[in-house]
Amino acid sequence: MQLKLYNSLTGEKEIFKPILEGNVGMYVCGPTVYSNVHLGNVRTFLSFDFIYRTLMHLGYKVRYVRNITDAGHLTDDGNVDNDRFVKQTRLEKLEPMEIVQKYTVDFHKVLEMFNLLPPNIEPTATGHIVEQIELTQKLIERGFAYESNGSVYFDVLEYNKRGLNYGELSKRNIEELFANTRDLDGQGEKKNPQDFALWKKASPAHIMRWNSPWGEGFPGWHLECTAMSTKYLGEKFDIHGGGMDLKFPHHECEIAQGKACNDTAPVNYWLHANMLTMNSQRMSKSTGNYILPMQLVTGENDFFEKSFHPSIVRFCFLQAHYRSVLDISNDAMIASEKGFIRLMEAVKVLNSVTPDNGRQSEFNLNEWKNKCYDALNDDFNSPILIAHLFEAVKYIFALNEGKETISTEDFEDLKSTLHAFIFDVLGLQNIEENNNEKLDQTLKVLIELRNQARKSKNFDLSDQIRDKLLAEGIELKDGRDGTTYVLN
Length: 488
Ligand code: AMP
Ligand code: ZN
What we know:
Layout: E1 4-7, E2 12-15, E3 23-28, H1 39-57, E4 61-66, H2 80-92, H3 96-113, H4 129-141, E5 145-148, E6 151-154, H5 156-161, H6 174-180, E7 196-201, E8 217-219, H7 221-233, E9 237-243, H8 247-262, E10 267-273, E11 276-278, E12 281-282, H9 293-298, H10 310-318, E13 326-328, H11 330-351, H12 365-377, H13 382-400, H14 408-425, H15 431-455, H16 459-471, E14 474-479, E15 482-487
Helix pairs in contact: 4-7, 7-8, 10-11, 11-13, 12-13, 15-16
Bound molecules: adenosine monophosphate and zinc ion.
């Protein structure tokens, strides 16, 4: 079985050939951390988490790099991001780096809640200013960039004159691009409207600024990803991912920068994840059609009639292929919840099945496994994998009812394969087990607090803790080795 993936650059499904056999270098554009991530952002990161998990499950050694776009660029054209950033620092009365820290912490918490694995390297844009200045210098030396009034721009026309093809990823024609754009930015600094900033002169209002050979300024957005991907994965690496909306201009510019610097295309396979919509409208902060991940999990929102566990949200997302648009709605979430519960019930029921080596089963385990792997190998097709998992679920319930049979060998194989697909590859979590663990931790904290109250002779409080827990059906038992609890 060979892994095939859809390469946005060629528009075709291709057999995946890593540069170094058995190894994968993967870069995914990370979040901009000046506000909370919305559920749409989460979908993109979750899609790549599934891809990362699948690659590892298929036996690849992966170096996964996902950056944090902190205050580094915060404006590319038109200073829009900077304006919002300035507003946010004023509104929250915080230092720029406090804003960055606050939303980076929030981002990590949210992804952890949905059981995303951390990348191997998570570089920040502001931590790589030196590399960005060096790249800008190299592009000037090679004749692909020019300085103008303290800013440096990439010369798109020069790039094309040398036979390179700006627009190859987004399939845009440069002449048409020139004809259709007005120069809204740059105050005549650029030679051509399509030229993009590698380095921008900082206006007095710009809060994040660094010294450079061209005066005080800040790096362009597209350059940060080229700097960080090159540093950690090399001039040419296997996979670059991001949301569909980043194809142009961001990824187009990354290709141009890479080729102009190193005479080679920086990436072999471009993967783009599709958007999340809610009630058929694209999720986005600017239109107001968005929901924060926590609001879906706590149920505090106007869109859904109940709360949903993060693992159910994860399951819902994976029921769509990463290249398809996914629409979430109340009905879609309720349907996912039902499916999720049935899947987890099958995992539980399988534990109590007794194998029987005497009878022949209708269910061909090897065939089923091959179909599951075919789905994974076919451009990470999670909905097809899930459909196959439900064939196994049907079989497991038939086993439980004594209508089907399984040999000891197949039993062990089915159990470990099912666990690997559900927990390692799809990254789902068993809600029941998780709740028990949480309850156990909570009760240990309460026992510790009660012990402290007793030590400080606050018997009123220690008795209250014991009695209130008892009223909830939780009995504390004091023994020689400490306090334990019994659930009645
Ligand atoms: P940002 O923090 O705005 O740079 O976005 C982080 C990532 O979220 C990017 O890869 C975007 O493509 C992605 N993204 C933004 N909106 C959506 C959406 N509605 N659905 C899926 N991904 C999105
Ligand atoms: Zn990027």
